């Protein structure tokens, strides 16, 4: 098994996001990061899947 290709998940609690514009902006910026496989934000939580690189 090649660990450099494994997919990890993380949930991050975030304070201060109060509108859909905040959610969209963060999804767009984090989605551009190298290795990010999937991102979903629900107001105060970020659910992120990424590949180890």
From TrEMBL:
<protein>
    <recommendedName>
        <fullName>HMA domain-containing protein</fullName>
    </recommendedName>
</protein>
<dbReference type="InterPro" id="IPR006121">
    <property type="entry name" value="HMA_dom"/>
</dbReference>
<dbReference type="GO" id="GO:0046872">
    <property type="term" value="F:metal ion binding"/>
</dbReference>
<dbReference type="Pfam" id="PF00403">
    <property type="entry name" value="HMA"/>
</dbReference>
<dbReference type="InterPro" id="IPR036163">
    <property type="entry name" value="HMA_dom_sf"/>
</dbReference>
<feature type="domain" description="HMA">
    <location>
        <begin position="8"/>
        <end position="53"/>
    </location>
</feature>
């Amino acid at each position: 098994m090649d660990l450099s290709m494994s997919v990890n998940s993380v949930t991050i609690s975030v304070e201060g996001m109060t509108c859909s514009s905040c959610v969209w902006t963060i999804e767009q910026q984090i989605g551009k990061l190298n290795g990010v496989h999937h991102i979903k934000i629900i107001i105060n939580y970020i659910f992120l899947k990424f590949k180890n690189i």
